[in-house]
Amino acid sequence: MKYRCVIFDLDGTLADTVSDIACAMNRALSAAGFSPVNESEYPGMVGWGVKKLAWLTLPESGRDEETTAHIAAEAGRIYNENPLVRTRAYPGIEGMLGALASKKIKTAVLSNKSDETARAVVNGLFGPGAFAVIRGALPGIPLKPDPQAVWEILAELDLAPGDAVFAGDSEIDVKTARNAGCFPLGVSWGYRPRKALEEAGAALVIDGPGELLGLINRGALYRYL
Length: 225
Description:
By secondary structure, this protein is an alpha/beta fold. The chain has helices spanning about 20-30, 50-55, 65-80, 95-100, 115-125, 150-155, 170-180, 195-200, 210-215, 220-225, and strands at about 5-10, 15, 90, 105-115, 135, 165-170, 185, 205. A 6-stranded parallel sheet has the order 5-4-1-6-7-8, sandwiched between helices.
């Protein structure tokens, strides 16, 4: 079977975004009188959306609904204003995307960032039109690992779950892929260790964009995935 689409996670998969996320969240924490969190701790906490990140960065005494919502809203506001200060695409991503396009394989992005911010980051890094669909968090649509957003993307592309690979760097993405019925592809260059991806059920873990690029260039994607 040859796959016709790859849906990518954003943070830790297409781009290294953690410094800008940490900066925004720490500014929000400090403004509310809480201690900032060391940036080195953020890779293990991102991926669930801004509200969960706010909850994780707050001390237990501050994890009430009102405080969490306030920190999340303030961090989201700060981040939306400055999402591309230190954020960079990972090496090899643009070449991989070009190879996918040359093989007529559709690409999409699904992030738990706000929809506005996801579009700003993706378009700022790769330019408008690099992906067929870009989708972030929207009101009324559950966040990953719920499969609803994946199914909506596939419907927009006139594809079925079995046509798609879902690629990401976290257990959230692997679970999303499995919940949606897509091929669960882990990437080891992001924010979670390979072991976490394998334990979550990744069918394959690649160590660099060039590895997928090599499969595509050899016309072997359908055999390996």
